[in-house]
Design a protein that fits this description.
With about 90 residues, this protein is mainly β. It is about 5% helix and about 45% strand. It starts with a strand and ends in an 8-residue tail after the last helix.
Amino acid sequence: MSLALVFEGGGDWEIVESDGTMAVARSSRPSPPGSTLVGTTASTSRPFRLKVRSCRKVDESALPFVIEGRLVDVTRDMKALLPMKST
């Protein structure tokens, strides 16, 4: 399961795993460390924001980049939508 999001400037990304604080995402475009991904979904009124820690290209799929980072300003309702990491 994943949470599909749309970039504010166009393009797609999805959060594939999270522990509520940190997250792993797949993205249609790269993002350098220190930048912030901002994406929206129809399920929430506020955008999801992910502060990028690392970004690497892993394949040639529609979402070829794996981005790891820290979720910023996530509400309890937003956390309920996240695909939680299994322990």
